[in-house]
Design a protein that fits this description.
Blueprint: H1 4-12, E1 30-31, E2 37-41, H2 46-51, H3 58-69, E3 77-81, H4 95-112, E4 116-120, H5 122-131, H6 141-144, E5 149-152, E6 157-163, H7 168-171, H8 174-183, H9 185-188
Bound molecules: uracil and iron/sulfur cluster.
């Protein structure tokens, strides 16, 4: 049977895209394997690459504050990213990198079986909405942030909620208010 440990080993040895060449550490994810909520960001940044832990830098501090305000602890959720290795200079993920790396996210989702998938930013939202048959609802994050979408898996009905990426609040203070308000929808789910 597959496990997060197995995926961790595979990611450690992965050369499916060019990003392995410049990474220090791959970042698989962190949190509870039994979590009902999974958060999916974009890709590791410099701090994450150094420590191998997702959202452990400035964007992570924003995320921690949002979670706290929503009454959710990091230990209650699982956090990961679309890409497991850091793109140089934090550039955007490329289509072929997302395609290459998605096998790991798919395996994580299959193991964790979350009821709610929170997408942080455009890349995660587009990938997840397409995967769960919501491609006709995909729009820019400024249109769909904070909305709850329903989707059906083989076993369950799940909720998908896109948010702005928490990093936006590190350079635009108004975004914190929007993010805080959006995170309140998690109380409703
Ligand atoms: N931004 C992300 O999308 N993920 C991280 O882990 C850190 C910053
Ligand atoms: Fe492999 Fe993903 Fe890292 Fe690319 S980003 S090398 S696919 S683990």
């Amino acid at each position: 049977m597959d496990s997060l440990d197995n995926i961790s080993k595979d990611v450690f040895n992965c050369k499916r895209c060019g990003l392995y060449k410049e990474r220090t550490n791959p970042v698989l994810g962190a949190g509870s394997p039994e979590a009902k909520i999974i958060f999916i960001g974009e890709a590791p940044g410099a701090n994450e690459d150094m420590r191998g832990i997702p959202f452990c830098g400035a964007a992570g501090r924003v995320l921690d504050r949002l979670l706290e305000k929503a009454g959710i602890g990091r230990e209650d959720i699982y956090i990961t990213n679309i890409l497991k290795c850091r793109p140089p200079e934090n550039r955007n993920p490329r289509e072929e990198e997302i395609k290459a790396c998605a096998v790991y996210l798919e395996r994580q989702i299959a193991i964790i079986k979350p009821r709610i998938i929170c997408c942080l930013g455009n890349f995660a939202a587009s990938y997840i909405m397409r995967k769960f048959g919501l491609e006709d609802k995909i729009e820019g994050i400024s249109k769909i942030h904070g909305k709850i979408f329903s989707a059906q898996t083989l076993f369950d009905s799940i909720k998908i909620v896109p948010f702005y990426h928490p990093a936006v609040a590190t350079y635009n203070a108004n975004m914190m208010n929007i993010l805080e308000k959006d995170f309140e929808v998690l109380k409703k789910c």
